């Protein structure tokens, strides 16, 4: 399903989840699958990380203290429109799912998700980001 | 919130109309299509899960249906967005239909609706409340209602459990741990279990639940007129039913009201013991669905207790009733630390004690008002039977009475209290090894299946006459009570399912639309059963055992009866229609079945299943037309096929369709797209000598085929000038368009490992000959493709053919055949003037006589 990304060896994923018991093992497992993965446990740090580092895909928890995942998604999409965001939540609702997708989330996944499935979504999100960037480059060629 | 979607998508895609779309736009739209296919499968899997739970006996509960509704909604909404992007927002009504259904479901599931009590006195528990109080409490309540002696108590319901889990945030923790537990070692399982259990034991309880526990305990004391110690025992949903969780969960004995909170947490924590987690995984149950009700009862101080099997579980369910007995509480017996007396009773000629085997019974577990402890049994007493023969018979009669009440063999825990009365502590279905005659032992009854295999789409058995359905035309006049046998599964069968006794299809999966319909209609159905059409003779009587995935000749009463016994326990849903059932009815049924009907519109979508059916169907259509429009636009990306063909074929790779190092001229080995390669293999089949004249010496054909017509018209030139065909390919996708001469052929295909996604959509129209000859060629294509298993339609010379849900290999074989067919029928319209040629040419194709080199057997035109 991800023809466009088979040849890509590594790309960058940021996991945002306030539960460190969950965040750390997940980042570890994504790294084992040959992704450049980083983790932060709150939304403001995620925004700082995105400003400072190239990130292709964000895996974002929805229910977090302080700035929640939906608010973070708005900020991410405003500042980095081609970064793809996958919402991953243990407290799902129809409204947050629709709102997240409406705000441009690539997918809305409900914990527990099999790691293989999460990997597949991350690959697809990365693939879509590549196509979107190609489109943008064509519409707005950088000045020589 | 979602209202602006249409406008925004419209802006995005109207600014890029398909006709002028560039290659990136095509790539993006193709991805939308693939995401739509995936979301469709995910929703179908959720629908199948709900339907299977309904079929299993309907223990759904609000929490289950709510969680599946939320999961399905996000994916349905995704499908609507994908279709909008794919089509340039051609179906705006779909979002409105989704919103309307969503609001209906929200109303049904609104807070306040169906919220159960936090606790329920045992005697107030009604039939059908198993999802609220767990199986143990529900069974015990039934025992009490039927007049058998039980100990008074109360259930702490699953509603309390959900409030506890949600209040403490444990529900999210469970989902998280489950996600990390995947494919991990036993060491990780232990660690995760320990973390979860610790969190449960430390978690705060909602004040209303704590208050309800105290109140229920006080009420119990008022009813009893004293304040005994209590026992808190697990009564998980699903426990003590067919999937026996015997011994997996904790009981806490000797509890005072002030200790109930901790005892409750302890029992709940045992829901996440390593063995309970492993047990659920082994049985395909989800940890996040597990719910625990708790049964609180007076802790007895019995003289004797034990276990009774109303039948010998190893004796094929017949023969003897077995009673084991120890002194004191039954704890020592259950944990295996005390050897009990074993009494066997013959139940064939009235009840008679057949044998007694005395156990050592050296110790006993007793309750002394402060708690429970183990103490030795005096040697003299230990050497005697704990129950005298009369008592054994009295107890056995209770066992038979319980078996009668529940309609199946029982595993009973009992106690003889200080007043010398027998008390039933619990009773659950007994697992019988080598069960009574049923579907799986039909072979032993002398019936030999004529067909085996496939997947159970809807369990059950049925007998009826075989009625084959090759196309929708065969549905007309479908006889009442017949068994529908078809090469494909199709939602169009909905029209006759109410008359069908059963369904058997050669292809199709359990999560398909038809499977879902079969479950909804409660029609036993076996899908993906190859060879059914050949094995089952039309009009013959057969017995279908969809549960055991077998078909027998004639009517096999033993199989039909065995199932009706098994299914006795199903609740009558229609009578009660609780909230979760009404919500399920807005999710799973498929009412939008015929895509060619004028009613196939977003406005007619009545369920989430209808929405995805509509989106799925329309996505085929959109991809079909997209390929034609974009072929020209993506010209710069096109690479020409180097092989000799009667037309120029150019390939456009969307990713994963061509080898990375392929040059500008493409050869077969460069094509790694499964469907692209299959079509090309068919087109390049050396058996079809399209560049050689067709022989004119065929007897009976010489008068028909003039020499000029049988010679390739381009007179030695390989390609017809200016005639170009495009194929857009990816790893699992192909969209082929050719306008060669006056013919138009279009083919759209998705073919991957997931059978549910696979389809071939083929259309063919046109030709240079007079209309009657073009129509004859249309008939020829219809005949050939119909024989290949396609659902075909013809209007004049326009043919459309559709094939769905074949396995990957079979789909590829069909594509190869289409490649051959395109060349075989090329310019055939010029040659056909007589209807009899249709059969003859179809036979020639079937027999591989592509070049018409041999005379037709049985004559021709």
Q: Please indicate the count of domains of chain B.
A: 5
Element-level helix/strand string of chain A: EHEHEHEHEH
Secondary structure tally, helices of chain A = 5
CATH topology of chain A: Rossmann fold
**N-C termini distance of chain B:** 67 Å
Biggest sheet of chain A, strands in spatial order? 2-1-3-4-5
Structural classification of chain A: alpha/beta
Number of strands of chain B: 30
Largest interface: A-B, 39 and 46 residues
Distance between the termini of chain A: 35 Å
Helix content of chain B: 25-40%
* Broad shape of chain A: globular
Q: β content of chain B, as a range?
A: 15-25%
Describe the protein in words.
The complex is a heterodimer of chains A (144) and B (861). Chain A has helices at residues 20-32, 43-52, 69-79, 94-102, 115-139, and strands at 12-16, 36-40, 57-60, 84-89, 107-110. Chain A has 144 residues and is an alpha/beta fold. Chain A has a five-stranded parallel sheet, sandwiched between helices. In chain A, helix 2 (43-52) runs parallel beside helix 3 (69-79). In chain A, 48% of the residues are buried. The two termini of chain B are 67 Å apart. The longest helix of chain B has 34 residues, at 23-56. By secondary structure, chain B is of the alpha+beta class. Chain A binds chain B through residues 1-4, 6-7, 19, 21-22, 25-26, 63, 90-95, 97-99, 101-102, 107-108, 110-115, 124, 127-128, 131-132, 134-135, 138, and chain B through 1-2, 4-5, 22, 24-25, 27-28, 31, 34-35, 38, 67, 69-71, 73-74, 77-78, 81, 102, 106, 171-173, 175-176, 178-180, 182-183, 195, 287-288, 654-657, 660, 730-732, 752.
């Amino acid at each position: 399903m991800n023809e466009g990304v088979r040849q890509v060896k590594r790309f960058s994923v940021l996991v945002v989840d306030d539960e460190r018991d969950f965040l750390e093992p997940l980042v570890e497992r994504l790294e084992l699958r040959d992704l450049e993965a980083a983790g932060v446990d709150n939304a403001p740090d995620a925004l700082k990380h995105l400003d400072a580092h190239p990130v292709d895909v964000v895996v974002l928890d929805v229910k977090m203290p302080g700035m929640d995942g939906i608010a973070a998604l708005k900020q991410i999409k405003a500042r980095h429109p081609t970064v793809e965001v996958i919402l991953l939540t243990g407290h799902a609702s129809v409204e947050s799912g629709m709102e997240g997708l409406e705000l441009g989330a690539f997918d809305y996944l409900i914990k527990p998700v099999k790691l293989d499935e999460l990997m597949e979504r991350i690959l697809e999100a990365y693939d879509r980001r590549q196509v979107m960037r190609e489109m943008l480059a064509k519409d707005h060629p950088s000045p020589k | 919130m979602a209202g602006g979607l249409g406008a925004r998508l419209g802006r995005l895609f109207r600014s890029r109309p398909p006709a002028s779309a560039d290659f990136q736009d095509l790539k993006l739209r193709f991805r939308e299509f693939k995401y739509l296919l995936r979301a469709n499968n995910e929703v179908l899997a959720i629908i199948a899960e709900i339907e299977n739970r309904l079929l299993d006996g309907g223990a759904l509960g609000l929490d289950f249906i709510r969680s599946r509704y939320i999961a399905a909604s996000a994916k349905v909404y995704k499908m609507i967005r994908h279709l909008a992007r794919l089509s340039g927002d051609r179906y705006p009504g779909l979002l409105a239909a989704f919103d309307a259904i969503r609001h209906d479901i929200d109303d049904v599931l609104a807070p306040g609706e169906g919220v159960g009590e936090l606790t329920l006195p045992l005697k107030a528990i009604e039939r059908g409340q198993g999802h609220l109080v767990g199986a143990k409490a529900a069974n015990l309540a039934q025992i009490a209602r039927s007049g058998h002696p039980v100990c008074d108590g109360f259930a702490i319901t699953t509603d309390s459990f959900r409030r506890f889990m949600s209040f403490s945030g444990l529900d999210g923790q469970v989902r998280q741990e489950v996600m990390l537990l995947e494919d991990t070692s036993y060491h990780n399982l232990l660690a995760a279990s320990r973390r979860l259990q610790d969190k449960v034991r430390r978690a705060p309880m909602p004040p209303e639940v704590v208050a309800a526990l105290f109140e229920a305990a006080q009420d119990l004391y008022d009813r009893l007129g004293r304040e005994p110690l209590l026992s808190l025992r697990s009564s998980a949903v699903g426990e003590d039913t067919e999937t026996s969780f015997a011994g997996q969960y904790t009981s806490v004995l000797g509890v005072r009201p002030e200790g109930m909170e901790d005892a409750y947490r302890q029992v709940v924590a045992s829901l996440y013991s390593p063995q309970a987690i492993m047990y659920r995984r082994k049985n395909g149950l989800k940890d996040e669905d597990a719910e625990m009700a708790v049964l609180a009862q007076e802790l007895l101080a019995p003289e004797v207790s034990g276990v009774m099997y109303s039948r010998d579980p190893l004796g094929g369910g017949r023969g003897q009733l077995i009673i084991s007995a120890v002194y004191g509480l039954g704890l020592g017996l259950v944990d295996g630390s005390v050897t009990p007396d074993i009494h066997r009773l013959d139940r064939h000629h009235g009840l008679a004690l057949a044998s007694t085997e005395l156990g050592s019974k050296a110790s006993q577990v007793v309750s002394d008002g402060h708690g429970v402890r183990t103490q030795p049994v005096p040697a003299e007493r230990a050497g005697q039977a704990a129950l005298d023969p009369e008592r054994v018979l009295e107890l056995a009669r209770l066992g038979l009475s319980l078996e009668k009440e529940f309609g199946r063999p029982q595993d009973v825990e009992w106690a003889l209290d200080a007043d010398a009365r027998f008390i039933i502590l619990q009773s659950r279905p007994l697992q019988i090894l080598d069960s009574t005659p049923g579907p799986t032992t039909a072979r032993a009854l002398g019936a030999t299946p004529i067909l085996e295999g496939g997947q159970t789409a809807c369990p059950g058995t049925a007998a009826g006459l075989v009625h084959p359905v090759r196309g929708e035309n065969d549905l007309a006049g479908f006889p009442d009570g017949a068994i529908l046998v078809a090469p494909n599964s199709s939602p169009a069968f909905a029209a006759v399912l109410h008359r069908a006794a059963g369904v058997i299809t050669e292809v199709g999966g359990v999560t398909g639309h038809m499977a879902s319909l079969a479950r909804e209609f409660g029609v036993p159905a076996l899908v993906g059963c190859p060879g059914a059409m050949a094995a089952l003779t039309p009009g013959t009587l057969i017995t279908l055992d969809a549960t055991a995935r077998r078909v027998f000749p004639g009517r096999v009463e033993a199989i039909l009866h065995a199932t009706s016994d098994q299914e006795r326990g199903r609740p009558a849903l229609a009578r009660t229609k609780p909230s979760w059932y009404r919500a399920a009815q807005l999710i799973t049924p498929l009412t939008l079945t015929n895509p060619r009907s004028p009613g196939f519109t977003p406005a007619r979508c009545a369920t989430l299943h209808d929405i995805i059916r509509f989106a799925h169907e329309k996505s085929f259509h959109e991809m079909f037309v997209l390929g034609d429009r974009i072929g020209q636009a993506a010209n710069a990306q096109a690479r020409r096929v180097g092989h000799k063909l009667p037309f120029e074929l150019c390939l456009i790779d969307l990713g994963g369709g061509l080898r990375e190092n392929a040059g500008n001229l493409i050869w077969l080995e460069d094509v790694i797209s499964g469907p692209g390669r299959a079509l090309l293999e068919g087109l390049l089949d050396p058996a079809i000598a399209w560049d050689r004249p067709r022989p004119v010496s065929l007897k009976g054909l010489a008068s028909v085929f003039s020499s000029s017509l049988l010679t390739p018209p381009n007179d030695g030139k390989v390609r017809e000038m200016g005639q170009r065909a495009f194929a857009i390919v990816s790893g699992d996708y192909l969209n082929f368009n050719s306008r060669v001469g006056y013919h138009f052929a279009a083919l759209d295909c998705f073919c991957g490992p997931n059978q549910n996604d696979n389809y071939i959509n083929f259309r063919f129209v046109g030709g240079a000959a007079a209309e009657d000859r073009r129509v004859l060629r249309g008939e020829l294509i219809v005949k050939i493709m119909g024989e290949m298993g396609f659902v075909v339609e013809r209007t004049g010379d326009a043919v459309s053919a559709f094939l769905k849900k074949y396995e990957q290999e079979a789909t590829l074989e069909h594509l190869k055949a289409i490649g051959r067919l395109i060349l075989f029928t090329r310019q055939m319209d010029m040659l056909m003037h007589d209807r009899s040629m249709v059969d003859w040419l179809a036979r020639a194709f079937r027999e591989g006589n592509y070049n018409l080199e041999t005379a037709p057997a049985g004559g021709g035109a």
